[in-house]
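RESIDUES AND SHAPES:
===
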Amino acid sequence: MTDKVCRVVATIMGVPAGGVNEDSSPASLPAWDSLRHMKLILAIEEAFGLQLADDEIVSMTNVRSIVALLERKREVRA
């Protein structure tokens, strides 16, 4: 799942896939601004077939937190 999230983040931020890891965040990726964050949310929802709540969106502060959120949502759906 981490690899897929990294690929989505890389695509939205316009960086090579190898330039994104679990620690990647707005602090380490200058392109990660509020507009790209919204685009990232839409891309994550589409890629993983789910809808994110406002509180979940706010919790997405780096790749690691996105992966953790998606894993929690997957467990709930299972």
Remarks:
- DSSP finds four helices and no strands in the chain.
- The chain has one domain: 2-77.
- The CA atoms of residues 65 and 72 lie 11 Å apart.
- The two ends are 16 Å apart (CA to CA).
